[in-house]
Amino acid sequence: MIMADKIIRLRKKNGWSQEELADKLDVSRQAVSKWEAAQSVPNLDKILQLSELFGVTTDYLLKDEIEDEEFTDNDDIDSVKKITLGDANKYLDTVKANSKKTSFATFLCIISAIPMLVLIAVSQIKSVGLSEDAAAIIGIGCLILIVAPAVALFIYVESVSEPFDFIEKGEFSTEYGVKGMVSERKKEYENEHTKDIIVGVIMCVVSPVPLLIASFWDIDFVMMLTVALLLFIVGIGVMRLVKTNSYWDAMSTLLNEEEFANERKKENKLVDSLETIYWLIFTAIYLTWSFLTNDWGKTWIVWPVAGVLFAAYSEVIEMIVEKKKEKSEQ
After folding, report:
1. Which of 85, 280, 309, 324 shows its CA 20 to 30 Å from the CA of 31?
2. Domain 3-79 classified CATH 3.30.70.980?
3. What's the pTM?
Protein backbone atom coordinates (compact mmCIF):
# COMPACT_ATOMS: atom_id res chain seq x y z
CA MET A 1 0.00 0.00 0.00
CA ILE A 2 1.46 3.33 -1.05
CA MET A 3 1.60 6.41 1.18
CA ALA A 4 -1.25 8.12 -0.68
CA ASP A 5 -3.65 5.28 0.15
CA LYS A 6 -2.49 5.24 3.77
CA ILE A 7 -3.18 8.95 4.20
CA ILE A 8 -6.68 8.49 2.73
CA ARG A 9 -7.31 5.51 4.99
CA LEU A 10 -6.12 7.26 8.16
CA ARG A 11 -7.92 10.50 7.34
CA LYS A 12 -11.25 8.76 6.80
CA LYS A 13 -10.70 6.62 9.89
CA ASN A 14 -10.50 9.85 11.93
CA GLY A 15 -13.55 11.28 10.18
CA TRP A 16 -11.71 14.29 8.76
CA SER A 17 -12.20 16.01 5.44
CA GLN A 18 -9.23 17.01 3.32
CA GLU A 19 -9.75 20.59 4.45
CA GLU A 20 -9.75 19.60 8.13
CA LEU A 21 -6.54 17.59 7.72
CA ALA A 22 -4.95 20.49 5.84
CA ASP A 23 -5.81 22.89 8.68
CA LYS A 24 -4.24 20.58 11.26
CA LEU A 25 -1.05 20.38 9.20
CA ASP A 26 -1.09 24.09 8.28
CA VAL A 27 -1.08 23.34 4.53
CA SER A 28 -3.59 23.96 1.74
CA ARG A 29 -6.38 21.54 0.89
CA GLN A 30 -4.84 21.24 -2.58
CA ALA A 31 -1.61 19.93 -1.01
CA VAL A 32 -3.51 17.16 0.78
CA SER A 33 -5.41 16.38 -2.41
CA LYS A 34 -2.14 15.96 -4.33
CA TRP A 35 -0.73 13.68 -1.61
CA GLU A 36 -3.79 11.46 -1.75
CA ALA A 37 -3.69 11.39 -5.56
CA ALA A 38 0.00 10.42 -5.42
CA GLN A 39 0.87 13.53 -7.42
CA SER A 40 3.29 14.73 -4.75
CA VAL A 41 4.86 13.48 -1.52
CA PRO A 42 4.84 15.30 1.85
CA ASN A 43 8.22 16.62 2.96
CA LEU A 44 9.94 15.10 5.98
CA ASP A 45 8.50 17.67 8.39
CA LYS A 46 4.93 16.94 7.24
CA ILE A 47 5.53 13.19 7.41
CA LEU A 48 6.56 13.59 11.05
CA GLN A 49 3.42 15.67 11.68
CA LEU A 50 1.26 13.03 9.97
CA SER A 51 2.88 10.36 12.11
CA GLU A 52 2.14 12.30 15.30
CA LEU A 53 -1.36 13.29 14.20
CA PHE A 54 -2.46 9.77 13.24
CA GLY A 55 -0.47 8.05 15.97
CA VAL A 56 1.35 5.76 13.55
CA THR A 57 5.04 5.17 12.90
CA THR A 58 6.91 6.89 10.10
CA ASP A 59 7.94 3.44 8.83
CA TYR A 60 4.29 2.60 8.27
CA LEU A 61 3.81 5.77 6.23
CA LEU A 62 7.02 5.46 4.20
CA LYS A 63 7.33 1.72 3.54
CA ASP A 64 4.87 0.37 0.97
CA GLU A 65 5.41 -3.21 2.12
CA ILE A 66 3.96 -2.46 5.58
CA GLU A 67 0.22 -2.96 5.14
CA ASP A 68 -0.95 -3.07 8.77
CA GLU A 69 -0.92 0.09 10.85
CA GLU A 70 1.98 0.41 13.29
CA PHE A 71 0.98 2.63 16.18
CA THR A 72 3.33 4.81 18.18
CA ASP A 73 3.44 5.12 21.96
CA ASN A 74 0.34 7.17 22.83
CA ASP A 75 1.89 8.54 26.02
CA ASP A 76 3.76 11.26 24.10
CA ILE A 77 0.67 12.14 22.09
CA ASP A 78 -1.54 12.41 25.13
CA SER A 79 1.00 14.66 26.86
CA VAL A 80 0.42 17.36 24.24
CA LYS A 81 -2.71 19.19 25.25
CA LYS A 82 -5.21 19.96 22.51
CA ILE A 83 -6.80 23.40 22.55
CA THR A 84 -10.47 23.62 21.62
CA LEU A 85 -12.20 26.61 20.08
CA GLY A 86 -13.67 27.44 23.50
CA ASP A 87 -10.26 27.21 25.18
CA ALA A 88 -8.73 29.53 22.58
CA ASN A 89 -11.47 32.14 22.94
CA LYS A 90 -11.24 32.04 26.73
CA TYR A 91 -7.45 32.36 26.62
CA LEU A 92 -7.54 35.36 24.28
CA ASP A 93 -10.28 37.09 26.28
CA THR A 94 -8.29 36.56 29.48
CA VAL A 95 -5.08 37.88 27.94
CA LYS A 96 -6.87 40.91 26.52
CA ALA A 97 -8.33 41.77 29.94
CA ASN A 98 -5.04 41.08 31.73
CA SER A 99 -3.04 43.15 29.22
CA LYS A 100 -4.78 46.30 30.47
CA LYS A 101 -3.96 45.45 34.09
CA THR A 102 -0.36 44.51 33.28
CA SER A 103 0.21 47.66 31.23
CA PHE A 104 -1.21 49.85 34.00
CA ALA A 105 0.95 48.10 36.62
CA THR A 106 3.99 48.71 34.40
CA PHE A 107 3.00 52.37 34.09
CA LEU A 108 2.81 52.67 37.89
CA CYS A 109 6.29 51.19 38.28
CA ILE A 110 7.75 53.62 35.74
CA ILE A 111 6.16 56.74 37.29
CA SER A 112 6.74 55.64 40.91
CA ALA A 113 9.83 57.85 41.16
CA ILE A 114 8.00 61.00 39.97
CA PRO A 115 6.77 62.16 43.43
CA MET A 116 10.30 61.87 44.79
CA LEU A 117 11.74 63.84 41.86
CA VAL A 118 9.11 66.55 42.24
CA LEU A 119 9.68 66.80 45.99
CA ILE A 120 13.45 67.01 45.53
CA ALA A 121 12.88 69.73 42.93
CA VAL A 122 10.66 71.63 45.38
CA SER A 123 13.33 71.26 48.09
CA GLN A 124 15.61 73.36 45.88
CA ILE A 125 13.34 76.34 46.60
CA LYS A 126 14.61 77.67 49.93
CA SER A 127 11.39 79.51 50.77
CA VAL A 128 9.49 76.21 50.90
CA GLY A 129 11.53 74.96 53.85
CA LEU A 130 11.73 71.34 52.72
CA SER A 131 15.15 69.70 53.06
CA GLU A 132 16.43 67.37 50.34
CA ASP A 133 16.71 64.48 52.83
CA ALA A 134 13.10 64.95 53.93
CA ALA A 135 12.00 65.15 50.29
CA ALA A 136 13.84 61.88 49.54
CA ILE A 137 12.27 60.10 52.55
CA ILE A 138 8.74 61.26 51.65
CA GLY A 139 9.43 60.40 48.03
CA ILE A 140 10.46 56.85 48.94
CA GLY A 141 7.23 56.49 50.89
CA CYS A 142 5.24 57.63 47.85
CA LEU A 143 7.23 55.26 45.64
CA ILE A 144 6.31 52.31 47.87
CA LEU A 145 2.64 53.33 47.89
CA ILE A 146 2.61 53.45 44.09
CA VAL A 147 4.58 50.24 43.52
CA ALA A 148 2.52 48.20 46.03
CA PRO A 149 -0.71 48.15 43.94
CA ALA A 150 1.40 47.49 40.83
CA VAL A 151 2.87 44.39 42.45
CA ALA A 152 -0.63 43.32 43.54
CA LEU A 153 -1.82 43.63 39.93
CA PHE A 154 1.12 41.57 38.65
CA ILE A 155 0.35 38.82 41.20
CA TYR A 156 -3.35 38.87 40.29
CA VAL A 157 -2.63 38.62 36.57
CA GLU A 158 -0.22 35.75 37.20
CA SER A 159 -2.83 33.81 39.19
CA VAL A 160 -5.56 34.38 36.60
CA SER A 161 -3.22 33.33 33.78
CA GLU A 162 -2.00 30.17 35.52
CA PRO A 163 -4.52 27.80 33.83
CA PHE A 164 -3.08 28.85 30.46
CA ASP A 165 0.62 28.43 31.35
CA PHE A 166 0.89 25.36 29.12
CA ILE A 167 0.04 27.51 26.08
CA GLU A 168 2.85 29.98 26.69
CA LYS A 169 5.43 27.60 28.17
CA GLY A 170 4.63 24.09 26.91
CA GLU A 171 3.61 22.34 23.73
CA PHE A 172 0.06 22.09 22.43
CA SER A 173 -1.98 21.35 19.34
CA THR A 174 -5.15 23.03 18.16
CA GLU A 175 -8.44 21.54 17.07
CA TYR A 176 -10.04 22.32 13.73
CA GLY A 177 -11.27 25.90 13.46
CA VAL A 178 -8.99 27.39 16.10
CA LYS A 179 -6.39 28.81 13.71
CA GLY A 180 -9.09 30.26 11.49
CA MET A 181 -10.74 32.02 14.44
CA VAL A 182 -7.45 33.37 15.77
CA SER A 183 -6.36 34.54 12.32
CA GLU A 184 -9.64 36.44 11.97
CA ARG A 185 -9.26 38.11 15.38
CA LYS A 186 -5.67 39.01 14.57
CA LYS A 187 -6.68 40.55 11.26
CA GLU A 188 -9.39 42.63 12.98
CA TYR A 189 -6.92 43.84 15.62
CA GLU A 190 -4.07 44.62 13.22
CA ASN A 191 -4.91 48.30 12.67
CA GLU A 192 -5.28 48.97 16.40
CA HIS A 193 -2.04 47.10 17.09
CA THR A 194 -0.15 49.15 14.50
CA LYS A 195 -1.56 52.38 15.92
CA ASP A 196 -0.54 51.46 19.50
CA ILE A 197 2.96 50.50 18.36
CA ILE A 198 3.43 53.79 16.49
CA VAL A 199 2.12 55.92 19.39
CA GLY A 200 4.12 53.97 22.00
CA VAL A 201 7.39 54.13 20.09
CA ILE A 202 7.01 57.83 19.24
CA MET A 203 6.31 58.71 22.89
CA CYS A 204 9.40 56.82 24.05
CA VAL A 205 11.54 58.45 21.35
CA VAL A 206 10.38 62.05 22.04
CA SER A 207 10.38 61.69 25.85
CA PRO A 208 13.95 63.08 26.30
CA VAL A 209 13.12 66.27 24.32
CA PRO A 210 11.92 68.30 27.37
CA LEU A 211 15.05 67.23 29.27
CA LEU A 212 17.32 68.29 26.41
CA ILE A 213 15.60 71.68 26.24
CA ALA A 214 15.88 72.14 30.03
CA SER A 215 19.59 71.30 29.94
CA PHE A 216 20.26 74.69 28.29
CA TRP A 217 19.25 76.45 31.52
CA ASP A 218 21.04 73.98 33.82
CA ILE A 219 18.67 74.73 36.71
CA ASP A 220 18.25 71.84 39.15
CA PHE A 221 14.58 72.63 39.79
CA VAL A 222 13.73 72.59 36.09
CA MET A 223 15.89 69.54 35.40
CA MET A 224 14.13 67.50 38.09
CA LEU A 225 10.70 68.41 36.78
CA THR A 226 11.62 67.54 33.20
CA VAL A 227 12.98 64.16 34.34
CA ALA A 228 9.61 63.56 36.01
CA LEU A 229 7.89 64.55 32.77
CA LEU A 230 10.19 62.20 30.85
CA LEU A 231 9.17 59.28 33.08
CA PHE A 232 5.49 60.10 32.66
CA ILE A 233 5.74 60.23 28.85
CA VAL A 234 7.75 56.99 28.78
CA GLY A 235 5.20 55.40 31.12
CA ILE A 236 2.33 56.23 28.75
CA GLY A 237 4.29 54.95 25.75
CA VAL A 238 5.33 51.70 27.43
CA MET A 239 1.77 51.17 28.67
CA ARG A 240 0.50 51.28 25.08
CA LEU A 241 3.24 48.88 23.93
CA VAL A 242 2.72 46.36 26.73
CA LYS A 243 -1.06 46.33 26.27
CA THR A 244 -1.01 45.75 22.52
CA ASN A 245 1.96 43.37 22.42
CA SER A 246 0.53 41.11 25.14
CA TYR A 247 -2.64 40.48 23.14
CA TRP A 248 -0.83 40.29 19.79
CA ASP A 249 1.72 37.81 21.14
CA ALA A 250 -1.07 35.63 22.57
CA MET A 251 -2.62 35.32 19.11
CA SER A 252 0.79 34.60 17.57
CA THR A 253 1.34 31.89 20.18
CA LEU A 254 -1.92 30.12 19.29
CA LEU A 255 -0.99 30.34 15.62
CA ASN A 256 2.42 28.84 16.48
CA GLU A 257 4.17 31.63 14.58
CA GLU A 258 7.90 32.36 14.45
CA GLU A 259 9.40 32.88 17.90
CA PHE A 260 6.18 31.65 19.53
CA ALA A 261 6.40 28.21 17.92
CA ASN A 262 6.50 25.16 20.21
CA GLU A 263 10.11 24.37 19.28
CA ARG A 264 11.31 27.86 20.30
CA LYS A 265 9.70 28.00 23.73
CA LYS A 266 12.74 26.59 25.54
CA GLU A 267 14.89 29.28 23.94
CA ASN A 268 12.36 31.94 24.96
CA LYS A 269 12.47 30.73 28.58
CA LEU A 270 16.26 31.16 28.62
CA VAL A 271 16.02 34.68 27.13
CA ASP A 272 13.32 35.67 29.64
CA SER A 273 15.42 34.40 32.55
CA LEU A 274 18.49 36.32 31.41
CA GLU A 275 16.46 39.49 30.93
CA THR A 276 15.02 39.14 34.42
CA ILE A 277 18.53 38.77 35.84
CA TYR A 278 19.55 41.91 33.94
CA TRP A 279 16.86 44.07 35.57
CA LEU A 280 17.48 42.57 39.01
CA ILE A 281 21.16 43.54 38.73
CA PHE A 282 20.33 47.14 37.83
CA THR A 283 17.76 47.32 40.61
CA ALA A 284 20.42 46.17 43.07
CA ILE A 285 22.86 48.76 41.68
CA TYR A 286 20.27 51.53 41.98
CA LEU A 287 19.26 50.69 45.55
CA THR A 288 22.84 50.13 46.74
CA TRP A 289 24.11 53.37 45.23
CA SER A 290 21.10 55.35 46.49
CA PHE A 291 21.28 54.15 50.09
CA LEU A 292 25.07 54.44 50.32
CA THR A 293 25.21 57.99 48.95
CA ASN A 294 21.69 59.11 49.91
CA ASP A 295 21.82 61.12 46.68
CA TRP A 296 18.46 60.09 45.21
CA GLY A 297 18.49 63.13 42.99
CA LYS A 298 21.32 61.65 40.91
CA THR A 299 20.96 57.89 41.19
CA TRP A 300 17.89 57.91 38.92
CA ILE A 301 20.35 58.04 36.02
CA VAL A 302 20.72 54.25 36.47
CA TRP A 303 17.36 53.66 34.79
CA PRO A 304 17.92 55.59 31.54
CA VAL A 305 21.32 53.89 31.24
CA ALA A 306 19.74 50.49 31.89
CA GLY A 307 17.11 51.18 29.26
CA VAL A 308 19.64 52.15 26.62
CA LEU A 309 21.90 49.17 27.35
CA PHE A 310 18.98 46.74 27.44
CA ALA A 311 18.48 46.89 23.67
CA ALA A 312 22.10 45.92 23.07
CA TYR A 313 21.96 43.27 25.81
CA SER A 314 18.84 41.70 24.25
CA GLU A 315 20.51 41.53 20.82
CA VAL A 316 23.60 39.85 22.27
CA ILE A 317 21.45 37.27 24.10
CA GLU A 318 19.49 36.55 20.91
CA MET A 319 22.75 36.06 18.98
CA ILE A 320 24.11 33.67 21.60
CA VAL A 321 20.88 31.63 21.61
CA GLU A 322 20.84 31.47 17.79
CA LYS A 323 24.49 30.31 17.65
CA LYS A 324 23.78 27.69 20.29
CA LYS A 325 20.82 26.47 18.24
CA GLU A 326 22.91 26.32 15.05
CA LYS A 327 25.61 24.24 16.79
CA SER A 328 23.04 21.80 18.16
CA GLU A 329 21.59 21.33 14.66
CA GLN A 330 25.00 20.56 13.09
Report:
1. 85
2. no
3. 0.64
